[in-house]
Every structure is written in C-alpha cells, then in structure tokens.
Design brief:
The chain has 397 residues and is an alpha/beta fold. It folds into two domains: 8-46 and 294-394, Alpha-Beta Complex (Aspartate Aminotransferase, domain 1), CATH 3.90.1150; 49-289, 3-Layer(aba) Sandwich (Aspartate Aminotransferase, domain 2), CATH 3.40.640. The chain has helices at residues 8-11, 17-30, 49-61, 75-89, 105-116, 132-140, 164-169, 190-202, 241-244, 259-272, 278-289, 293-315, 341-353, 379-394; strands spanning 36-37, 99-102, 122-127, 143-148, 170-175, 205-209, 235-240, 253-257, 328-332, 355-356, 358-359, 370-374. The longest helix is centred in the last third of the chain and has 23 residues, at 293-315. The N and C termini lie far apart (52 Å).
Length: 397
C-alpha cells in the first residue's frame, strides 16, 4: 500500500463530531441496547407528499431533467426563490443575477470560504457554531477569530470585543440566527443593523446562515438580512430546504445577494460541480410555490417537543430554558457533571442508556458545558429519553 501524506489543512481538523457519535452508536447497537438518537439534526418526519409527487412525476415523464443542469440553477427554480423571498420577507431580488442554487447550504458555505479566503485572511466565527462555519475556514488555511456566544449576552456576539487589528484583517463574518446549536434568536433587530454597520466599516462580507428562518415558535418572526437598509452592500444569505421542508437528504439550498458578492462563489462552483439535479430543483419549485402550512405545522411539532424536553430536563436539574426557534434544545449540564465535560458525558450517556446527544464542545470551546438535543424522534420516544436521562442524572446528585 502506498503511503501519501494528506493535506496539512485536513490534518488540523478534529474527527467530525457526528462521525465519532455514529461510531459510538454502532458499538451500542451491537450490544442490542435500544438507541434514542437526539444527536444529529436529521429530521424524522417525511418530506411533504406534494413535493415527493412532483419529483416522481418529473423523473418519470420529463427525461430531459436527467441531463446536466445549469450550475447556477435553472431559471424556474431561481425565479421561484425570488418570488418566495418577496412573499415571505418583502425583499426584491433579481433571479438572474442575485440567486445561486446550492447542493445544500453546507456545501455552499464551505465553497464560499474557498472562493474568498487566503491563508493570511481572518474570518469572524461564532463560538459555539455550526461546524462548517469554522471547518470551512480551516480547510482553506485561513485564520479564525472566535466571537463567544455567552448566555449572559443571549448567545449573541459582542462586536465591541473584536480587536481593531483583527477587524481590519477580517474578510468574512458568519452569523446564524435562529441559531444552531444554541437555538437563540435575535429579538432586537438593532443587532442586525449593528452587524451591517460593523461589516461596512471594516469591509467584511456578512454571511447570514438563515437555514432555520421557518422553524420559529409562537409570534416570533425570523427576518431576512435584506430587510435592513444597506444589507445588500455587505451581505449574502443562505437558505436550506433541509429543515423547512424536511428535505435533508435531497441536498438543495440557495444563496442570495448582490451579484458582485455572489459571483466569486458562482465562478468557483462552475469549476467543481454542475449543481443540483434538475428534477430536484423542480421539486424545490413545488415546495416554494405549494402550500406553506407544512412548514407551519412542522414548527408546531418542534415547539411541542421542545417544551416537553425543556420542562423534563429542568426537573432533573439541567439548566435549560424554552426557545423560540430551531429544532434544538441547548442544555447546560447539571453542576455535578461539569467536571467531566460534555464529550465524556455524551459518551457515557449513549453507552449506559442508549440516548444520543451532541456534546457542546463539538461546536466550539464555549459549548463545553452544554449538550445539544435534536428534536428528531417520535414524540412517544421523548418520554423514554427523559426517563433514561433522569436516571443517569441521579447518579451524579
């Protein structure tokens, strides 16, 4: 067998969080222990039937959609996106120049890093964060300045804490609200105005990862960055079909913004891929143009699950509060578990109880004392999960 050294940038990355968790699940499964998986944010509910029907009909009766697609997305798909954005947020974008199809927003964010960053550049990344926000930067070999998300600040970054010398070197800032993993939302829109002002001052590309815009609870409304003045001068916004329409495995998303800011990513992708298959894009059209009550009903399901988990964990001494969006619960470990750390607790929990949670440290240093619970199993299973977590917790009290 030949012996070839891999990329230095790749060696700097730790094992992917969910790869390690999946290995633990496999070991536990082989011991015939019942697993309740609340780890990865992988929706358990099916894709709405009208979207599936459109896909099946298109594949069967429109064989021209089996060909290579346009890398930037077929015109009908891009037009449907801009019409949806106009209905949902009241923003006006050009489907020809200001929207780009993606094979999932995760892929798009990683490729954006490759499109813009050089080794001496800085990216401003929240800590904790969705892993591709920092892994995408690391794979390019660029530098990261982490912006702590602290509970006392409602899990929002404090722009005044970013050193002037770092701000001047930064090229990209990643923001993600409603937030993965903390489930935080922005309740004061002055935050968005300040982020735009900061990025304009220091000539920074503001990336709004808005994958959870439709998964909100009660009367909370998640805005688009483009609802705020001057945003198009500095921002790109990513959206995903994965969570909104339960299309995680379909791999479809988009990014939008001013052509000048979008074009580098479009050019980069044109050298690497042909874009999402046309039949999947047309299913996306059906999702965007079809009934939206499927997303509204989904939010109600997640809200019900969230309340059950939050109030259940509170009874066992976990430090956790109700949220206003996403499909996650961000729970601080009980005091007597803190010394062991989130990874060790996650390992013990799955090995002893079969309940899989994501250790907060996998999302960043400031996630160390937390666990992320994904609300992605049948509601009857949450009762069992809480019983097991409660019994596990009693061993520490």
């Amino acid at each position: 067998m030949i012996n070839i050294k891999i990329s230095k940038n790749l060696t700097k990355l730790p094992p992917y969080l969910f790869t390690k968790i999946n290995q633990l699940k496999k070991e536990v499964y082989e011991k015939n222990l019942d697993i309740i998986d609340l780890g990865m944010g992988n929706p358990d509910l099916p894709t709405p039937s009208h979207i599936v029907d459109r896909l099946c009909d298109t594949i069967k009766h429109h064989t021209n959609t089996h060909k290579y697609p346009q890398a930037k997305g077929i015109p009908k798909f891009r037009k449907s996106i801009t019409e949806w954005l106009a209905r949902r947020f009241g923003v006006d974008l050009d489907p020809e120049n200001e929207v780009l199809s993606l094979i999932g927003s995760k892929e798009g964010i990683a490729h954006l890093c490759m499109s813009y960053l050089n080794p001496d550049d800085y990216a401003l990344v929240c800590d904790p964060a969705y892993p591709v926000h920092f892994n995408g930067v690391s794979l390019v070999g660029a530098k990261i300045h982490f912006m702590p998300l602290l509970e006392k600040n409602k899990f929002l970054p404090d722009f005044t804490k970013i050193p002037e010398k770092i701000a001047k070197k930064a090229k990209i800032m990643f923001l993600n609200y409603p937030n993965n993993p903390t489930a935080a939302v922005v309740e004061d829109n002055n935050f968005w105005k300040e982020s735009i002002k900061f990025c304009k001052k220091y000539n920074i590309l503001l990336v709004s990862d808005n994958a959870y815009s439709e998964l909100t609870f009660g009367n909370y409304y998640a805005p688009s960055i483009f609802e705020f003045p001057k945003a198009k001068d500095v921002a790109l916004e990513f959206h995903s079909f994965s969570k909104t329409f339960n299309m995680a495995g379909w791999r479809l998303g988009w990014v939008c913004g001013a052509r000048k800011l979008l074009y580098p990513l479009e050019k980069f992708k044109s050298f690497l891929d042909y874009g999402a298959p046309m039949f999947i894009q047309l299913a996306g059209v059906a999702a965007l143009n079809g009934p939206q009550d499927c997303s509204q009903n989904l939010s109600k399901v997640y809200e019900k699950r969230m309340k059950k988990m939050v109030f259940g964990l509170q009874k066992f001494g976990w430090h956790v509060n109700p949220t206003k969006g996403t499909m996650y619960v961000w729970a601080k470990l009980p005091d007597k578990m803190l010394k062991e750390g989130s990874l060790k607790i996650a390992e013990k929990l799955v090995q002893e109880t079969g309940v899989v949670l994501s250790p907060g440290v996998g999302f960043g240093k400031h996630g160390e004392t937390y666990m992320r619970l994904s609300l992605v199993t049948h509601e009857k299973r949450f009762h069992d999960a809480l019983l097991r977590i409660g019994k596990f917790t009693k061993n520490y009290i």
